[in-house]
Amino acid sequence: MSCCGGSSVSETELAPDARDLRREEFLRSGIADGEGRLSFVFFAPEVHCAACITTIERGLMRLDGVASARVNLSTRRVRAVVDEAMDDPYRVVEAVERLGYTVSPMDLSEDDGRSDPVFGALVRALVVAGFAAGNIMLLSVSVWSGAEGETRHLFQLISGLIAVPAVLYAGQPFYRSAWAALRGGHLNMDVPISLAVLLTLGMSIYEAFFGGGETWFDASATLLFFLLIGRVLDQQMREKARSSIARLTRMAAKGAMVIDGDGEVGYAPIDEVRPGMRLQVPVGERFPVDSRLVRGRTDIDRSLATGESLPAALVPGDVVEAGALNLTATVEVEATADAKHSLIAEMVRLMEAAEQGKAAYMRLADRAAAAYAPVVHILAFATFAGWMVATGDWHDALRAAIAVLIITCPCALGLAVPIAQVVGASVLLQRGILVRTGSAFERMAEIRQAVFDKTGTLTEPDSLAVAGTVTDETLALAASLAGASRHPLSRAVVSSARSRGIAYSAFDAVTETAGEGLEGSLSDGRRIRLGKRSFVGGISAQHASEEAPASLWLAAEGETARPVPVEGVLRSKAGETIATLRASSLPVWIVSGDRQESVSSTARALGIPEDQALGELSPRQKIETVESLSREGAVLFVGDGINDAPALAAAHVSITPSEASDVGRASADFIFTGRSLDAVMTALDVSRRVLATVKENFALAILYNVIAVPLAVIGGVTPLVAAIAMSASSLVVVGNALRLRLAFRRPIVPAEEPRRAAPQREATA
């Protein structure tokens, strides 16, 4: 199951109009990350081994303007991130094609269930090789039974007539790959395999017509047969391992019902839907893009986003994710994102990123695979030379060299890491957890302590409410500021105002200071602030009561600050998660911008020692705390807000809920879509199992080479046996990784009702 097929149509062979259309299609597919870079994803169907990964990634990184390049071995996708200032991003495609790989655009429809042309070609080649191998074996029985003279020669010629066209046709996946690699100026795994097959066939033809000795037509055909069996099964297993991505992409809408300015409803392809468009979503259809409900009420199934199967009510003003199913009534929504930036597309990108992350073990496998081709050619030549010196028999020398070429293919080593990551990411996705990078599994398994933010992480973000003692006037002013922030306390203020039916108008310009609060301007020019006591105190005359407990404070410049207390509830399974972590000898800390009294109260409710509950920390202090703890062992950070983003990035590994801020989600390694905090333990359990599987795969690959290579060198393995052994080793590694599915094949327990926590004292607005 080796390597990559070459490009059958190069860029220069396309007509000018076709090249221009292809270039335009590629450039349109770029997604901006908001940091001056564009991300392009395209399909390279012939990528089949770690050597291909190294070749493409190194080739792309040589281009000016390319920030990063990653090749996904399982999905055969290439992701290139380039600077927006790059003169011609299409040079990325041209560079890959110069290396000998076919390239085609990639979008959500790629996994829509269509047949895989590569798989079909492999099956046809397998059928031809199997037919030839079976018939040649029947003829060989007579030769092995003692046929001599003209009878033996006739059977050899008939075998040759069957073998030559069959081997030339069935071996095309290997020959094309090898030729493309050589034409691109590099070696890949299929070069020695093609060499072995053709040498076996050529030597058999020579013996049949000139030498009169033993022929290996059966070996060349059977060799290809077993190689193709391995590649076909490997292809099927990879498809099964990444089936979660296929299920996600099939949920993506192909179009939407758009309402124009005259109120007419018409169909539009999903690529034409833009933020701000009015859409109609009938009963039984999925919401095509992330949207906000503007007319009607309905119940929806949002299990794709949250993992919860119970219907949820949707009322005007609520937001809904792409892929949610409309259950009870036709509604009108306003698109808040296009298809490329909606939930399903983001989940696919996260899954892709998870599969192509570069952990330490992955880098080790890449280095080993990259060194394979030159090393194996040297080893095969040394074997041939050694046998010639020892015996002088070129037949035996060539047979031993061919066996070495075949048996040393490092497919098992190349699959050891990525296949485990693919299956691990699939297992987590089934439990509502997304992985941003494959290396996160390794880092999660290494943690020695856990650090949690409080508000919105240990507590429910959507179950916060402003206390009833707050006046409508105060709440209206607070909501006018809070509407500009995604912080859980800000959203609680807005939600409370709506639930009371209080009308408010958002301020034109609101500034958010991470870890402190929000500031706007009144009509008379005075500043007004909502946030921490110290932040609001900078403009207020005095506080209403120095002892008044409050999560938030509100004050206009020169006026008395008013408390805005908010109450919250602990997330589902928060107590059990903390208890399990501590029982596993993993110390648990709370670091929060909230008032120390509030943080200590939450710590007591969860059984966390109060000296490990740190409050009133700024974002910088959170980073310093994480870095300080990291000196004692790898730190897992769990947080959700903008002020947590630096700590999420600084920690050894991090996890955040899906309702976290955009910055928080971009900084975390894992994202869980449900409401229960037991996602932390699930991610930890799966990560430990993935790391164990990677180690097992490495051990299996090394054991195979330790046993098989010496046998091939000393002549104890024929080319036929070598082909069977090489194919079997790769299948064993892939099958071992798929055992992860069995290990975690258990029902997902519904989340319990959240428990009421102590009133939230003071926190970041």
TrEMBL record:
Topology of this chain in the membrane: Multi-pass membrane protein
Which BP terms in the Gene Ontology apply to this protein?
copper ion homeostasis
Chief place of localization = membrane
Q: Which GO terms describe its molecular function?
A: ATP binding; ATP hydrolysis activity; copper ion binding; P-type divalent copper transporter activity
Segments spanning the bilayer are 122-147, 153-171, 191-209, 215-233, 369-390, 402-429, 697-714, 720-738
* Localisation per UniProt entry: Cell membrane
Q: Which residues form a coiled coil?
A: none
Q: Which domain of life is it from?
A: Bacteria
Q: What is this protein called?
A: Cu2+-exporting ATPase
